[in-house]
Amino acid sequence: MSARSIRTILACATALGVALGCGESVQPPTPKEAADSQRVLKDWFECEECDDGELAAVVELGDGAVHLLGAVVVRGLSSAARARFVGQLEERYEQRLAYAEQYPSFAPVMKRDVFLSHHLGNRDALYRVRALRALERMGTDAARDALEEAQGQTGHPGVEREIRRVLSEM
Description:
globular, disordered N terminus, mainly alpha
């Protein structure tokens, strides 16, 4: 997710708040606030143990992050995150091939395209479920609306099932 995307979404949310009469004191995020929000979201989407308060930090972003989280539920990885992860996967696959030259019994069992597709699909599902978890934890009307909008649009049966479960419990 780029800093520009975060700034645009937060600026749109701010503009919407002003248009709806939520107060004139609402200001667009500063570049530092946008960068901080981007870091918080990236930390949550990419954490391994996720035991350092990453989810709580996303929840603290509030309704300003709901639109972006809803978009991740529907579309999964951003093109920038996808490209970054594909690069990492290609490097990992090449390392495995090189290792297999010395130790043939450790040769990759998957062809490169299957390896990339498999791991990219897993990462995409992880981002979607984490966005869904953040919306669930927020529990606001805006979060519920985002999940209702996402329902039926993800193309991912597991995510759709989880959306139904969360909506039934909100």
